[in-house]
Design brief:
Tachylectin-2, Chain A, mainly beta, 22 strands, binds beta-D-mannopyranose, 5-stranded mixed beta sheet, 2 helices
């Protein structure tokens, strides 16, 4: 138990958890029963990965990336009592258009992937990579119950991916990180910050961070919803390097200024998790560990990270907030080479 509360948020006594193995030298450790969600949990799916989990009514709920057996990218809803054993709908989410322009073509479903879910004020907002005229951008929707989902306007023009909300308004505005991209397997990518008065109109875009050496040399993208801490916003992100066999997706961590989150305070030079478990190395896309959600318990400082393994299964890893923040500070890139 921490003596101080580093996480500024609610307690989550039923957070899924496993103690750190004695022989583990890393700041993050994998769940011994990984993967938590196998690729064939529902009959319609080819693979279930890169998915978003939140606390819901004393248990857990989420939005899941399920590529179907046509290999079309879809998002499904799911519920769980313990965060480990999941029931997912076999059909994809059918969004109801929100607002007064329901026949606009932004509501024509093309594809959706890599969802994030974020509780803000009175509802769960969902962001995902949304196809619009064949181009990826950030789709935005919301739900109160994980049964009925409403779709709002796309946040940005194409091309964009990895739209990640902050869990409260900042300086009176909704806030989101995103990663402008192209229509392919984008060989570049930096993280930007945008704000909105109404969740519809997004602007005042600010650069947050770009690529660096090694594991984060090709592109970076925000991962789970940032966690508010006494040391700044804790951001877990993915970094990509290009090997002779293609992209390799690892995880890193950063701290962002609380009031001006486009200002980076620290950022890990080494990765915090790298694909080396078999379910991260072997699958439809080898060598991918892609985080999309965390659960956090402010009382104990425990953090559970949900991530996709090899674009095939959903896995879980754990860390402790004080240890992770100490690791970020001790292993940060130098201040004059941070962003
Ligand atoms: C990205 C996204 C992710 C995927 C990753 C590795 O561009 O498509 O969903 O996990 O590539 O294939």
């Amino acid at each position: 138990m921490s003596t101080k509360q580093t996480i500024l948020g609610p307690a989550l006594p039923n957070i899924p958890w496993e103690d750190k193995p004695k022989d583990c030298v890393d700041v993050i450790w994998r769940y011994s029963q990984n993967p938590v969600i196998q690729r064939d949990l529902i009959p319609s799916s080819n693979s279930i990965f890169n998915s978003a989990v939140v606390p819901f009514e004393g248990a857990f709920a989420g939005v899941f990336r399920c590529d179907d057996k046509r290999r079309y990218m879809q998002i499904h809803s799911g519920k769980s009592k313990d965060g480990l054993s999941w029931e997912l709908t076999n059909e994809r989410i059918q969004f109801i258009p929100d607002g007064d322009r329901s026949d606009d073509d932004v509501f024509n479903w093309e594809y959706g992937y890599d969802p994030r879910v974020c509780w803000i004020e009175d509802r769960y907002y969902v962001t995902w990579c949304n196809g619009y005229h064949g181009q990826p951008t950030i789709g935005v929707g919301y739900t109160y119950d994980f049964e009925t989902f409403y779709q709002m306007e796309n946040a940005y023009l194409p091309h964009n991916r990895n739209g990640v909300m902050f869990p409260r308004k900042i300086n009176g505005k909704f806030a989101m990180l995103s990663r402008p991209s192209d229509n392919g397997h984008t060989p570049f990518g930096d993280i930007y910050y945008s704000e909105s008065p109404d969740m519809i109109h997004w602007g005042r875009h600010r650069f947050v961070m770009g690529t660096k050496g090694g594991w984060q040399s090709t592109k970076v993208g925000a991962g789970p919803i940032p966690i508010e801490t006494t040391e700044g916003w804790l951001l877990i992100y993915h970094g990509v390097l290009t090997s002779c066999n293609g992209f390799v997706y690892s995880m890193g961590a950063a701290l962002l200024d609380i009031d001006q989150p486009w200002k980076l305070l620290y950022r890990t030079e080494p990765y915090i998790l790298h694909p080396k478990a078999i379910y991260e190395n072997v699958g439809d896309v080898p060598n991918v560990a892609f985080p999309c959600a965390t659960l956090a318990d402010a009382e104990t400082g425990r953090i559970a990270i949900y991530y996709g393994g090899a674009d095939t299964v959903t896995a879980l890893a754990f860390t402790q907030v004080d240890a992770l923040i100490a690791f970020i500070k001790e292993n940060s890139l130098p201040q004059d080479n941070l962003a």
